[in-house]
Amino acid sequence: MAAQAALQRIVYERGHELGGNINAEHGSGRWQRDELQRYKSPVEIEVMRAIRRTLDPQGLINPGKML
């Protein structure tokens, strides 16, 4: 598990350096929450949460996902 986390960090860091994003069209899951804090600004995270609240105010679609 530690090797997987280390590899994931390398991929995320390199992707970030190249202007990439750790998110995809399927959204951000539970395991990406900590990573989002590392790579996204507080404003970006709040925009994501606001979109989520607007589209799914009761949190019924993919519970636990950020967006």
Automatic annotation (TrEMBL):
It comes from the Bacteria. Pfam families: FAD-oxidase_C (PF02913). Residues 7-66 form the FAD-binding oxidoreductase/transferase type 4 C-terminal domain. InterPro entries: FAD-bd_oxidored_4_C (IPR004113), FAD-linked_Oxase-like_C (IPR016164), FAD-oxidored/transferase_4 (IPR051264), Vanillyl_alc_oxidase_C-sub2 (IPR016171). Keywords: FAD, Flavoprotein. Belongs to the FAD-binding oxidoreductase/transferase type 4 family. PANTHER family: BLL6224 PROTEIN, D-2-HYDROXYGLUTARATE DEHYDROGENASE, MITOCHONDRIAL. This is FAD-binding oxidoreductase/transferase type 4 C-terminal domain-containing protein. It comes from Candidatus Accumulibacter phosphatis.
